[in-house]
Design brief:
The structure is a homodimer of 151-residue chains. By secondary structure, the first copy, chain A, is mainly α. Chain A contains six helices and three strands; from the N terminus they run ααβααββαα. Chains A and B meet through helix 1, helix 2, helix 5 and helix 6 of A and helix 1, helix 2, helix 5 and helix 6 of B. The structure holds a DNA duplex (23 and 23 nucleotides).
Chain lengths: 151, 151
DNA sequence: TATTGTTATACTCTATAACTATA
DNA sequence: TATAGTTATAGAGTATAACAATA
């Protein structure tokens, strides 16, 4: 007399699939941008700067959902790479305003290209329609969760 | 004279969205199963056991893609919770065969319920058809990536 | 006194390497 | 000698708390 099994277990849930697949994809993305001496969080910071134009480190910490001390470390690294510049805000000399350099925009383009290539590989088995619909729903879910979607 | 922007930047890619959304969902899932003194990796181990019936710790390490030493720590914890039993394989006394207990199956059901509840919240803004299509594509992508899908 | 950025420190997660017991 | 599991140790990543400069 078998127990009643879960009609379909944890792997059939959207949350589990999204979590495991997201982790796998993030790892693959990280491996590809490692060639530029960048990690996903660096790409996230560059992206935030490209959307916001300028931003203080506190604002970035809030936006990225990380501790301010981590923004210091990320910005230090990006500054060493020549990807960003730190400028004291003359109106409030406590604030450091971060801005993208040309090199930073170039690196962000490289990251985007790497992500697009990965997209192609991941969705090789999908029709164009399936892929488009999937991407749109993904964008809506991300927006609902308060994440950037570029729209 | 604005520079030409990326026609659509990193946040418009499937890889970026999957990675960020996956991370956010994983965090939320972790917060909910913390009430059972479990973390996502524990749920993954319980799931693997439920699919495989029995498994040695080495096999589990391979399946979960983690170091064997981590399986030790995860199994220690699950054993303390009464969720699994360790049995020496009589045929090869080096091997520990892990099996789910009734309590383990109960905990796995609790995790699945938590994931389903989270699913509902995440997809509240989608039609049933959109949701079904999204889940199916997610399953195909996960399967292509070698992850369990429960199918 | 409050706030921005920084530094110092600690904690979590996980892997690698050394070790024990079986084979 | 080789393998399963365990233990010891170390590294990455990130947070919290103390501190300095400025408001």
């Amino acid at each position: 007399m078998n127990e009643v099994k879960n009609p379909a277990g944890l792997p059939s849930t959207l949350s589990f699939r999204l979590g495991t697949l997201g982790s796998a994809v993030a790892d693959r993305f990280a491996a590809r941008i490692a060639a530029y001496d960048l990690k996903p969080k660096h790409a996230g910071l560059l992206t935030a700067l490209s959307l916001e134009q300028v931003a203080s480190q506190q604002e970035l910490a809030l936006r990225l959902g990380v501790a301010p001390s981590l923004v210091v470390a990320l910005a230090d690294h990006l500054e060493r790479l020549g990807a960003i510049e730190r400028l004291r805000d003359p109106a409030d000399r406590r604030r450091q305003v971060l801005t993208l350099t040309d090199r930073g925009r170039e690196l962000l383009r490289d990251c985007t290209t790497a992500a697009r290539t990965l997209d192609e590989e991941l969705t090789a088995g999908l029709t164009a329609a399936e892929r488009g619909a999937f991407l749109r729903v993904l964008g809506r879910l991300a927006a609902d969760a308060g994440l950037p979607t570029g729209d």
